[in-house]
Write a structure and sequence with these properties.
This protein is an alpha/beta fold and 302 residues long. The protein has a single domain, classed as TIM Barrel. The chain has 13 helices and nine strands. Strands 1-2-3-4-7-8-9 form a seven-stranded parallel sheet. The relative contact order is 0.15.
């Protein structure tokens, strides 16, 4: 909760750069988003953003990982690969076209499922995105974030909420160690449909895995996405939750807001609220920019 000085805080934070480290999903390249990518970029320009990372989803490694909404319109792993290729081409063109108005990073958001590591590495080598957002949307090769029914079905399948959270953080740890993504997306995502998530996150074994993962993020030099989509999902706070944020700050992990927009209407939605929330928690607001996978790996090797 913001202090009694929150009005002043909000006024002061308007001077802080508007950025999104995890944003820009478009209906052109994502079935659960709307609007063309250029229209979304124009919305970021109009809103006064300084820089934005466009982070469309990678194509799946096989047809078994095509999302239901993609299957419904006849998309396959091959056609989604072609769409991703088009995304990178369109994104690079927009990067140049709007360079004097907005700094665009053309990145992508990873997945975690069987064979993900080699698949992502091949895509990075071929398309050379500006950075990777490392996210987990699957448990045991089943996507859990499309709707609440899928979520609770998978919770049951893996043995309950304790097991669900712990498997998620184990997979996230593997992803951090294996891919070394430059940004960690919506860190505490297993809470997406869990109304009692504060209790669940604090379960001792789960909390131990959270701390292990934060130390791995610190060691890797990655940035944490403060994903304000949490409010749009009805949570009282963004992803990441306040107790995890405080541990990240204590470790010196950079935290940067991401609006995770899925259309023009969501560009910058709740961003000022997110900046106020981060400032109240003591987060430095000289937002760290993402580095490329190549420069990130070179830095680690030194």
């Amino acid at each position: 909760m913001l202090s009694s000085g929150s009005v002043w805080l909000s006024e002061f934070s308007k001077m802080i750069e508007w950025v999104s480290i995890h944003g820009g999903h478009s209906g052109q390249f994502c079935n659960h988003a709307v609007d063309s990518l250029e229209v979304i970029v124009q919305a970021y320009v109009a809103a006064g953003f300084s820089w934005v990372g466009i982070t469309e989803h990678i194509p799946p490694g096989g047809d078994e990982f095509v999302y239901p909404d993609e299957q419904a319109v006849g998309l396959t792993a091959v056609s989604l690969y072609h769409r991703f290729r088009d995304y990178m081409q369109v994104g690079r063109a927009l990067q140049q076209q709007y360079a004097d108005q907005l700094t665009l990073y053309i990145g992508c958001e990873t997945e975690y499922y069987t064979g993900y590591a080699d698949h992502v590495r091949r895509l990075v080598a071929e398309f050379q995105p500006d950075y990777l957002v490392g996210s987990v949307h699957h448990l045991e090769d089943m996507s859990f974030d499309m709707d609440a029914n899928d979520y609770w079905r998978i919770v049951t399948a893996v043995g309950g909420l304790d097991a669900f959270y712990q498997k998620y953080f184990d997979q996230q740890y593997d992803m951090i160690q294996t891919l070394r993504p430059q940004v960690i997306g919506h860190f505490d995502y297993p809470r997406i449909y869990d109304p009692d998530y504060p209790t669940q996150l604090r379960q001792p074994e789960t909390w131990g895995k959270i701390m292990r993962n934060l130390h791995a993020i610190k060691e890797s030099g990655a940035i944490l996405d403060c994903n304000i989509k949490g409010w749009r999902k009805g949570h009282p706070e963004p992803y990441i939750s306040a107790p995890i944020l405080q541990e990240a700050l204590a470790l010196g992990i950079p935290v940067v807001p991401g609006d995770d927009s899925h259309g023009v209407a969501e560009v910058g939605a709740d961003l000022q609220r997110g900046i106020d929330w981060l400032q109240a928690a003591g987060v430095p607001t000289n937002w760290q920019r993402p580095c490329s996978p190549v420069s990130h790996n070179e830095k680690e090797e030194k």
